[in-house]
Amino acid sequence: MLPRKSITRASGSSSLQEGRMKRIAWAFVPLFCTAMFLFAGDKNSAHEMTGWVCNAKCVDHSSGTATCSKNCSETSGKVVFISDEGHVLQITNQDKAQPMAGKHCKMTAKKDPASDALDVQNMVELRGP
Q1: Residue 82 in 3-state DSSP?
Q2: Residue in 91, 72, 73 with CA at minimum distance from that of residue 81
Q3: pLDDT class for 13, splitting at 50, 70, 90?
């Protein structure tokens, strides 16, 4: 008879532990859902970046990273943004970017996830080195 009581006791505590585990697991579900919503919303926010606004025909890739050629005198056509890291990004609203062509700028823009193009919110010319 002793073994029977110990088996009953063990199965009762097992059931109790399973209940606790389920409650703990369900407590984390809202936490994970909230985290997913926070990270998903971050993609559409505006980002600040620095780089050069350059005519697309004046982009020079000869050094391994993209730069804006200083000797280029092209003024017609689209402008692109070349980040300080050397990434070339298309600009959707050309009217805001055209006046800054050939200048080093600080830009606030939203990135379109489908096309990887920038929608310029604000641009300020950076002066100095």
Answers
A1: strand
A2: 91
A3: low
Does the 46-125 domain belong in CATH 1.10.287?
Answer: no
Nearest C-alpha neighbor of 114 from the set 57, 54, 48, 43: 43
Q: In this structure, which long-range contacts are made by residues 98-105, counting pairs with CB atoms below 8 Å and at least 24 apart in sequence?
A: 100/53, 100/125, 101/53, 101/54, 101/55, 101/75, 102/52, 102/53, 102/54, 102/55, 102/68, 103/52, 103/53, 104/50, 104/51, 104/52, 105/50, 105/51, 105/52, 105/53
CA distances from 69 to 12, 103, 104, 114, 127 (A): 77, 12, 13, 29, 18
pTM, to two decimals: 0.63
CA–CA gap between residue 58 and residue 75 (Å, rounded): 9
For 68-123, the pLDDT digits (tens) are 888 887 778 899 999 999 999 999 999 999 999 889 999 999 988 888 899 999 99
